[in-house]
Amino acid sequence: MSSKLKVLQVIPRLGYGGAETGCYDLAHYLPENNCSSYIVTSGGELLKFVDQKKVKLIKLPVHSKNPILMIFNSIALIFIILFYNISIIHARSRAPAWSCLLATKITRRKFVTTFHGTYNFKNPIKKFYNSVMARSNLVIAGSNFIFSHINKNYSKYLNFQKKFLVIFRGINVDYFDPSKISEIEENNLISSWGVTRDKKLILMPGRLTAWKGQEVFIEALNLINKKLKYHHSFYAVILGDDQGRDVYTKKIKRLAEQYRLTSQLKFVEHCKNMPLAYKLSNLVVSASTEPEAFGRVAIEAQSMEKPIIASDIGGSNETIINNQTGFLFESNNPVSLSEKIIEVLNLDESRLKLIGTEGRKNIIKKFNVEKMCFSTYSEYKKLLN
């Protein structure tokens, strides 16, 4: 059976997000298990890292929500499915999923979807558009939180003929490994960020958008300074791209200036080596004001043996063992966040080391990319059988 398994994953763009890296990791795992692997995408930064001896790349405008292009994509996918004799089509986003649904109906192939987010809706039309992710033969939720969200909002699309389960996202723990970072790399990044080793560094990674909680973080830093009598005993780095949200970027930078944080708080747009960014930090914060479907920051920080403070909503409740591998604070509450940051900054080295060790154990056990890929591959085989 495995020798006949041919899997086509369809994703709008192959960038550095959770859905994209999951697609990339699985695409390279399948050939190692005697399966043929294909990706249809419109482009993306990860494309240059794809091993095209193992993975067949096909470019189509599957990022588009234009109905005409979606129909064109369906027709193109039908030809691809028939030409390569694809067994399973796995869609990882809504627009391409509609194209895949039509293509799989016509070709009578198995259809798989992964719910990577809550896909918020404010009207029946948007909910109907989202529902395509629950119309497949196998529906995969990236966390128990997403599983509950699907059950609550899309239950009428689930029936006994379909399989619906949770497969946690995973990360490459060999890549996010603190032992593989050199001191030279650390010194170079310290220099480029304009910080020094004599103060603790608080890192907040994530794209610059309101729901990621950068304003909450800045408010918390101001409260910490007031409580510590402005001793400026730490640096903070907000690491992320605004992806064109210039107004929001200006807003949070003005807020930092208002609280006189400009000498302490650094805004960094990009860091190609995220393990290095984590290694440099003493503490990592994820302050999302809306539930994270999964929350890669919490996973990556734990894998790098760093204490993580995250909002007590969404996926963080599943990925963090509170007070053991990290800490949860009351969502959208700067006071709660500031108190938790001060608490962690005051922990002794032995306690921090224990948190780091337990955090990495937690990720290796539950959120390893190998486990994610094996679980998905196993479900593919069950689906065909």
SSE diagram, text form:
Elements lengths: L5 E5 L7 H12 L6 E6 L13 E5 L7 H18 L3 E4 L2 H14 L2 E6 L8 H7 L7 E4 L2 H11 L8 E4 L16 H11 L6 E6 L8 H14 L6 E6 L6 H13 L6 E4 L5 H7 L2 E4 L9 H8 L4 E4 L4 H4 L7 E3 L4 H12 L3 H18 L2 H16 L1
Parallel strand pairs: 1-2, 1-4, 2-3, 4-5, 5-6, 6-7, 8-9, 8-11, 9-10, 11-12, 12-13
Helix pairs in contact: 1-14, 2-3, 6-9, 7-12, 10-13
Strand line-up of the largest beta sheet:
3-2-1-4-5-6-7
Basic shape: elongated
CATH class annotation of the largest domain: Alpha Beta
Average pLDDT confidence is: 94
Sketch the topology as an H/E string, one letter per element. EHEEHEHEHEHEHEHEHEHEHEHEHHH
The count of helical stretches stands at: 14
Topology, number of strands = 13
Question: What's the quick description here?
Answer:
With 385 residues, this protein is α/β, with parallel strands linked by helices. The chain has helices at residues 18-29, 67-84, 94-107, 124-130, 144-154, 183-193, 214-227, 246-258, 274-280, 296-303, 316-319, 334-345, 349-366, 369-384, and strands at residues 6-10, 36-41, 55-59, 88-91, 110-115, 138-141, 163-166, 200-205, 234-239, 265-268, 283-286, 308-311, 327-329. The protein folds into two domains: 2-170 and 368-384, Rossmann fold (3-Layer(aba) Sandwich), CATH 3.40.50; 178-366, Rossmann fold (3-Layer(aba) Sandwich).
Which features characterize this protein?
14 helices; Rossmann fold; 6-stranded parallel β-sheet; elongated; alpha/beta; 7-stranded parallel β-sheet
Report what the structure shows.
This protein is of the alpha/beta class and 385 residues long. It folds into 2 domains: 186 residues, Glycogen Phosphorylase B (Rossmann fold, 3-Layer(aba) Sandwich); 189 residues, 3-Layer(aba) Sandwich (Rossmann fold). It contains 14 helices and 13 strands. The strands form 2 sheets. The protein has a 7-stranded parallel β-sheet with strand order 3-2-1-4-5-6-7, sandwiched between helices. Helix 7 crosses helix 12. It starts with 5 loop residues before the first strand and ends with a helix. The model has no long low-confidence stretch (mean pLDDT 94).
